[in-house]
């Protein structure tokens, strides 16, 4: 039954939910969407094809076939996502009693059919004949699904288990019994569940740590161990530690343990425990007799099925409807496992009630047992006690995959020079097989290597043979690779005489972070007049440039910080006509349109600054270019200035002046000046608008461009940058005492 699942049989894998390594070799052309698998409900059957589509047949009274109708089907129909739109991208399926569930490759879960207890997980109890998303957006990252009678389980990638639907016996695992839930609830399993499964009215799980098996819900006949009382909270089942696969039936459970041996517990009235008799029950696990090397199993209502590693199927228990596949029905129950005759090369199987379905390596699907509603898929409603091949309504045999019958390599031969690569492509027969997993090998890796995607790399002169082998059937093809020595390179030309780089930035300004945060920005106006913002990022580097607009070629730019006291860094510019413009920052790295806050400033060397007078409002300095007087214009905190000015110095006519922020850490704004001879002077602010005498803090700045006034690296100390004569941009980290660290180059070509 439901199920650590029939797909586990594929290529001998016994750990549920994982893809065999043999199927993840080289995806040539296009890898299969899914590992084909089968699932059985009470009276319907599902098949997942390798292309990720789902097909169904049998009873459809609740829409469990997903074809948009409630019409019973005795041959396969395709499950549709909506009218005329097939359901695709599915990688796993499971069937409940009268509902169906699919797990897609994107980690979402979809369900359809009976919803009387809310088991479709869409918040309602209305049946659905097309798939609906189980859990809506609340469930992502699903890795495994299981379903029982009127409830559904989902295991997520984070190891948590979720349940929805009926809780009559506590099968939702939330600590109570009774009622139902139309929305997902978390099962109280231990952290880190690796596998899940579902019986008719109970849930099963294997934890990753310690591999203990846990069970919850209906415990009739002791199938969960211990007493026969319901277990609404997950409880360990003793004696099954290390289980690699589980399957729950109506009143019994099966477990596959390392070494391919099967253990069982619960009701045994029809011999479904496989111990040689039909006596009573056992609430402690007992080993199934006479079957070994098992790699997959499934529990029906009162019978059991196992798949051995040699591809044969073995059954035991009740055979009223021929569900053992033994060729007989009625009083032919079997208390020990027996082989299903004339059936080989099986890779997947499942059962739920009284019929069994298997998938063979050639992609054909076979069924036997009860067929009252066409669940055997042979076009009839006649029970059948031996394997029948499922057919389409047209009479052609149904296939879940199309095996590869042959392969060639394109091209069949290739010539490369050392160091070159080429990609080989396998060409399959039939032309578009479902299973396209291949492996690549080279007989001489020293001459030519090949990747798992068919990429050949020439290593040394010689000849190598590249072989491609299909995972399905082991078909092979070869390509001859001839490698020639690489020609000698021509002599290198003499490098041209380097010419000094031409600076690309017309202006450079430092700014507190326009996007907020502790780090500042470097702003630059390029030769075309475009304003660029370079965030100063971790590692003392310039981040990617962000354009703040064009048309700045004739505007002198300043970045005084928060000019209008709205908590956001602004810019100030003076146009060629002498207009002073305020560009308000938006706090997200951008600026608004300019607003005029003054005019007649083209006669002054203007230095918008931070708070110079200690009133918390940004101010401005200006040098009268005619007299050399240093003038203070006190800000009004609204983006403008108070009336008048105060002269705070003289003799500044030949000085380049720069706002510097608080360079010495005393909480007062300072300025830097460069004399005509290149001496760099530091003027400590007094907090009154006046400055202390200049102190030399550098030399050699003649011909350099200085930008200051911001804390670039976020250490709460003002820094500076300088552009050299050869257009290198240097960063000087402030020491917080008016001096700077050694220069670090952060850009060239500026």
- Amino- and carboxy-terminal Cα gap: 72 Å
What percent strand? 35-45%
Note the overall shape: elongated
* Unreliable stretches covering 5 or more consecutive residues: 1-31, 497-501
So how many helices? 0
Assign a percent range to the helix content. under 10%
Task: Output the radius of gyration.
Answer: 39 Å
Structural class: mainly beta
Q: Report on the biggest sheet.
A: 5 strands, antiparallel
Order of strands in the sheet with most strands = 1-21-22-23-24
Q: How would you describe the overall organization of this protein?
A:
With 750 residues, this protein is mainly β. Helix content is 0%, strand content 43%. The chain contains no helices and 62 strands. Strand 40 and strand 41 (476-484) form a beta hairpin. It is elongated. It starts with a strand and ends with a strand. Residues 1-31 and 497-501 have low confidence and may be disordered.
Question: What are the salient characteristics of this protein?
Answer:
750 residues, mainly beta, 5-stranded mixed beta sheet, 62 strands
Topology:
Elements: E1 2-3, E2 26-27, E3 37-40, E4 44-48, E5 54-58, E6 73-78, E7 80-82, E8 85-86, E9 90-95, E10 99-104, E11 109-113, E12 128-133, E13 142-147, E14 151-156, E15 161-166, E16 180-186, E17 193-198, E18 202-207, E19 213-217, E20 231-236, E21 245-248, E22 252-257, E23 261-267, E24 281-287, E25 294-299, E26 303-308, E27 313-317, E28 334-339, E29 346-351, E30 355-360, E31 365-369, E32 384-389, E33 406-410, E34 413-417, E35 421-423, E36 425-429, E37 437-442, E38 448-450, E39 455-458, E40 462-470, E41 476-484, E42 505-511, E43 521-526, E44 531-537, E45 541-542, E46 546-547, E47 555-561, E48 570-575, E49 580-585, E50 591-598, E51 604-608, E52 620-624, E53 630-633, E54 646-649, E55 656-661, E56 670-674, E57 680-683, E58 695-698, E59 705-710, E60 719-723, E61 729-732, E62 744-747
Parallel strand pairs: 34-41
Antiparallel strand pairs: 1-21, 2-37, 3-4, 4-5, 5-6, 7-8, 9-10, 10-11, 11-12, 13-14, 14-15, 15-16, 17-18, 18-19, 19-20, 21-22, 22-23, 23-24, 25-26, 26-27, 27-28, 29-30, 30-31, 31-32, 33-36, 35-39, 37-40, 38-39, 40-41, 42-43, 43-44, 44-45, 44-46, 47-48, 48-49, 49-50, 51-52, 52-53, 53-54, 55-56, ...
């Amino acid at each position: 039954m439901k199920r650590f699942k029939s797909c586990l049989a594929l290529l001998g894998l016994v750990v549920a939910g994982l893809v065999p390594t043999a199927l993840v070799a080289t995806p040539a052309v296009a890898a299969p969407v899914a590992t084909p698998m089968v699932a059985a409900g009470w009276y319907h059957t599902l098949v997942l094809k390798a292309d990720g589509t789902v097909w169904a047949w049998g009873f459809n009274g609740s829409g469990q076939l997903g074809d948009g109708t409630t019409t019973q089907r005795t041959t396969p129909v395709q499950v549709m996502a909506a009218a005329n739109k097939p359901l695709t991208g599915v990688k796993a399926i499971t069937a409940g009693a009268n509902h169906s569930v699919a797990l897609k490759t994107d980690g979402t879960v979809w369900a359809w059919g009976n919803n009387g207890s809310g088991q479709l997980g869409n918040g309602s109890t209305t049946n659905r004949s097309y798939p609906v998303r189980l859990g809506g957006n609340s469930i992502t990252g699903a890795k495994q699904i299981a379903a029982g009678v009127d409830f559904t389980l989902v295991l997520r990638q984070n190891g948590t288990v979720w349940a929805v639907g009926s809780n009559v016996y506590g099968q939702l695992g939330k600590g109570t019994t009774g009622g139902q839930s139309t929305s997902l609830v978390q099962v109280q399993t231990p952290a880190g569940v690796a596998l899940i499964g579902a019986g008719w009215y109970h849930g099963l799980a294997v934890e990753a740590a310690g591999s203990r098996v846990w069970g919850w819900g209906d415990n009739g006949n002791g199938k969960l161990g211990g007493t026969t009382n319901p277990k609404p909270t997950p409880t360990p089942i003793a004696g099954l530690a290390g289980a690699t696969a589980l399957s729950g039936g109506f009143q019994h459970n099966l477990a596959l343990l390392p070494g391919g041996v099967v253990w069982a517990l619960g009701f045994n009235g029809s011999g479904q425990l496989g111990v040689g008799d039909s006596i009573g029950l056992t609430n402690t696990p007992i080993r199934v007799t006479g079957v070994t090397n098992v790699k997959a199993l499934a529990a029906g209502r009162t019978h059991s099925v196992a798949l051995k590693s040699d591809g044969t199927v073995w059954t035991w228990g009740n055979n009223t409807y021929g569900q053992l596949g033994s060729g007989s029905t009625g009083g032919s129950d079997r208390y020990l496992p027996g082989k299903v005759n004339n059936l080989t090369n099986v890779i997947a199987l499942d059962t739920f009630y009284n019929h069994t379905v298997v998938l063979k390596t050639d992609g054909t699907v076979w069924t036997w047992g009860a067929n009252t509603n066409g669940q055997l898929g042979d076009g009839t409603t006649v029970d059948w006690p031996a394997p029948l091949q499922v057919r389409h309504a047209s009479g052609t045999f149904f296939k879940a995959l199309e095996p590869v019958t042959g392969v060639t390599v394109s091209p069949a031969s290739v010539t490369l020079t050392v160091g070159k690569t080429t990609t080989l492509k396998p060409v399959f027969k039939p032309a578009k097989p479902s299973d396209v997993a291949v492996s690549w090998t080279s007989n001489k890796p020293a001459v030519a290597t090949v990747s798992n995607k068919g990429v050949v790399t020439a290593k040394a002169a010689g000849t190598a043979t590249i072989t491609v082998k299909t995972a399905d059937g082991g078909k092979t093809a070869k390509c001859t690779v001839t490698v020639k020595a690489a020609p000698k390179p021509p002599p290198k030309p003499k490098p041209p005489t380097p010419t000094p780089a031409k600076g690309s930035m017309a202006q450079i300004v430092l700014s507190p972070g326009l996007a907020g945060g502790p780090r500042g920005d470097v702003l630059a106006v390029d030769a075309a007049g475009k304003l660029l913002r370079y965030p100063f990022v971790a590692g003392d580097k310039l981040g990617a440039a962000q354009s703040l607009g064009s048309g700045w070629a004739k505007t002198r730019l300043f970045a005084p910080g928060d000019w209008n006291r709205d908590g956001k860094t602004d810019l100030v510019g003076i146009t060629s006509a002498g207009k002073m413009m305020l560009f308000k920052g938006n706090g997200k790295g951008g600026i608004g349109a300019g607003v005029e806050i003054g005019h007649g400033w083209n006669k002054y060397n203007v230095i918008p600054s931070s708070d110079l007078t200690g009133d918390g409002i940004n101010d401005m300095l200006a040098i009268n270019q005619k007299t050399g007087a240093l003038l203070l214009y006190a800000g009004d905190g609204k983006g403008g200035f108070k009336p008048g000015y105060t002269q705070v110095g003289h003799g500044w006519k030949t000085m380049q002046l720069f706002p510097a922020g608080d360079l010495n850490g005393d909480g007062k704004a300072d300025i830097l000046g460069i004399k005509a001879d290149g001496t760099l002077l530091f003027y400590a602010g007094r907090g009154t608008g006046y400055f202390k005498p200049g102190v030399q803090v550098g030399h050699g700045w003649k011909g350099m461009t200085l930008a200051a006034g911001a804390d670039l690296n976020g250490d709460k100390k003002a820094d500076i940058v300088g552009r050299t004569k050869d257009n290198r941009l240097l960063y000087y980290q402030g020491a917080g005492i008016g001096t700077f660290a050694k220069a670090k180059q952060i850009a060239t070509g500026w």
